[in-house]
Amino acid sequence: MKKIIHKSETRGLANHGWLKSYHTFSFANYQNLERMNFGALRVLNDDMVQPKMGFGTHPHKNMEIISIPISGSLSHKDSMQNKRAIEVGEVQVMSAGTGVTHSEFNDSSSEEVNFLQLWIFPESENVTPYYDQKYFEKEGRKNKFQTLVSPKDKLVDGSLPINQQGYLFMIDLDKDFKTEYHLKNGAYFFLIDGAIEIEDIVLNKRDAVGIYETNLVKIKAKEDSKLLIIDVPMHF
């Protein structure tokens, strides 16, 4: 078993006033050669966007982009004619493929938006761009692994497809609940909230650990917690 521990305070930070963004991996002006990716997971940004502010129209190509709101609502508009808001409880997937442009905006006049954005390297390049989003019932992740995203050729019922052999799971853990996670590839455990113990490693809010070269890990919640698991190929 191999482990890579990333404590919350070691992330890169970009504070633009209207946007505060914590970068788990090298991104924009934060460059760290030791933190370029975890397998096929290239970007994990923890973004906070101020009211009436947002990202103007910008391009993407050949990347699987996944957005998960933590609080607030984020408006999305893209070159595929999608124009929708992403709410808490929803997950958005966009396969950029041959190329798309999109914008993201906080329409609220008073509430900050906090969302996670992940970039995963695709399994094949120059696919036809794809977009979807879905609301996931919280009952489906109470002390069990809820599949948010899975490979398009091995799609788990009820999940969103991506162009890679990767999976995203979310679980809401009650205090003292114990469980086991069976790895498909390498798994990056990002604690959104709470405190947990994974294989004797204690994670607090926004801490993470990447684990690979093993089949199973044990998880125990030290308090009520919300955990995101990004299971991706280590070689692709």
UniProtKB/TrEMBL annotation:
Transmembrane segments: none annotated. Residues 11-120 form the Pirin N-terminal domain. It comes from the Bacteria. SUPFAM superfamilies: RmlC-like cupins. Residues 148-232 form the Quercetin 2,3-dioxygenase C-terminal cupin domain. Belongs to the pirin family. This is Pirin family protein. It comes from Polaribacter marinaquae. The lineage of its organism: Bacteria, Pseudomonadati, Bacteroidota, Flavobacteriia, Flavobacteriales.
